[in-house]
Structure formats: C-alpha cells, structure tokens
Amino acid sequence: MAALLQVNDLHINYGALEALKGVTLSVEEGEVVTVLGANGAGKSTLLRAISGLLPPREGEILLNGAALSRVPAYDIVLKGISHAPEGRKVFATLTVEENLNLGAFTRRKRREEVMRARDRVFELFPLLKDRRGQLAGTLSGGEQQMLAIGRALMSTPRILLLDEPSLGLAPILVNLIFTIIQEINRQGVAILLVEQNAHQALALARRGYVLETGTISAHGSSQELQSDQRIQEAYLGGAGLSTREN
User: Helix 96-103 to helix 111-124 angle, to the nearest 10 degrees?
Assistant: First the structure.
C-alpha cells in the first residue's frame, strides 16, 4: 500500500545553489512526522516543493501514488495538501473571517461546506471566533499562528504541512499550539511538521527525519531519534526526552 505522501530523491535548486540533494521521506495516513534541522538546512524548501511552490530539478512527489511534480499549487490544495507557512503570512488588512474564507477558495461555491469548515476551525480556536471581525494585522503573534493554521484547515486537507508553528511564541502559547496540533491529528489529518523545537516535535511525532544542508542525515522513530547521542547534542540540548538506552 502506497504512503499517503511519498517524496523520492528530491533535488531543488535556487539558481546554482542546490538546496535539496536527494531527499526521500514518507508520511502515512493519519501520521505525524517531523523534520528537524538547523536554519538553512532546507526544511522550508522541502515544504514549498511539496506544496507546488518550487519546481523539482529531479525526483518525484507522490500523493497516494499519484505524481504531483507537474501539478499547479492550487490543484495540490484541491487534492488534499494544505500548508501553513513559516512566518504565518496572514493578510493583515483583511479580517480573521476573510482570511479563513480565502483558505476555502477551492470550495467557494459550496457554501455549506465552507461554513462547516469554519465552524470546525472555531471549535479548535475559540479565540478566532471571538476575533472574527478583527483585522488580522492587529492580532498577537500567537493569534496569527492560530489563524494561519485555521486558514490551512479550511480546505479540509488530508495532510497538513506546518512550518515552524512555535516560532517566536511564548512557552505557554507553544504548549497550546502543540495541543491543538495533536487534536487536529486525532481528527484524522496527517501532519508533516517542520519545527526547531525538537523536544516538542519529537514528543508529538511518531517518526522523524533530520535534514542537514539539504540531505537527510538520520531518520527513525521518535524514540530512536531522542536516544541518539548526536541528535541529543545537536537538537535536544545534550539530553534526550527518553531515558531508554540504545
């Protein structure tokens, strides 16, 4: 049985610079998979390629076994992949509700489906319901992150790509965001999570990959990565989350 998302030998270039050098990874139905790595490792590039925003030089991206490499970004959303980008990228001069409605552009002619999706977002993020008429640019950083995730959910994706959802947030908001991500996954949405907070990411994910200078340098279960001494030193402050020995 094919993985829900399969990336095979993916190469991405920015001009002469090779940003991804043969990346291979997979995400199964209903699974949370995290990608760890330092700044500049290629994590955001990977998500942008999966979303159709960057064309591969080589390799393939498959959704349920069907190739996405030549599919326009808007059709990739229709097929079930949605992306909450790094930096939130909300439309500051539009209201919360208008931002959410833009996330449902693929089903804009199906009003009842849009309303159901919006109600689901408001259940996950009650604060957004309270702020539905407020301009997105006046929201706090945490509220904008909730809006970015909510907007991505408006297309009812099968797989959600999250790029640094905890970046710049206070610890209490980080915990809240990760609790909500866990609930989204419980509702059946597979998640590919790019996150520098390795502790939180590995606590949530079933499996993980480590991306270094455009290449996958390690992969395995969350427990395996947590107990790997090199990964502990590089990403976990020298101590893993698990006391289990290798």
Answer: 120
d(CA 141, CA 168): 8
The pTM score is 0.90
Count the alpha carbons within 13 Å of 126 in the hemisphere toward its beta carbon. 1
**Which SS3 state, helix, strand or coil, does residue 100 take?**
helix
Using one digit for the tens of pLDDT, what is the confidence trace for 122-134? 999 999 999 999 9
Q: Strand pairing partners for 216?
A: 211
User: Is the CB of residue 121 less than 8 Å from the CB of residue 115?
Assistant: no
CA distances (Å), origin 64, targets 3, 7, 81, 84, 173: 6, 11, 11, 21, 34
Question: Tens digit of pLDDT for each residue in 142-181?
Answer: 999 999 999 999 999 999 999 999 998 889 999 999 999 9
| CA separation for the pair 165, 195 (Å, rounded) | 7
Report DSSP letters for 154-208, one per residue.
Answer: TT--SEEEEE-TTTT--HHHHHHHHHHHHHHHHTT-EEEEE-S-HHHHHHH-SEE
- Contact at 8 Å (CB) between 205 and 32? yes
Interatomic CA distance for residues 113 and 103, integer angstroms = 12
List the structure tokens of 169.
């947030």
What is the helix (H) or strand (E) element at residue 43, kind and residue range?
helix 43-50
Ordered alpha helix ranges (H), 81-158: 96-103, 111-124, 126-130, 141-153
Q: How far apart, in whole angstroms, are the C-alpha atoms of residue 193 and residue 179?
A: 14
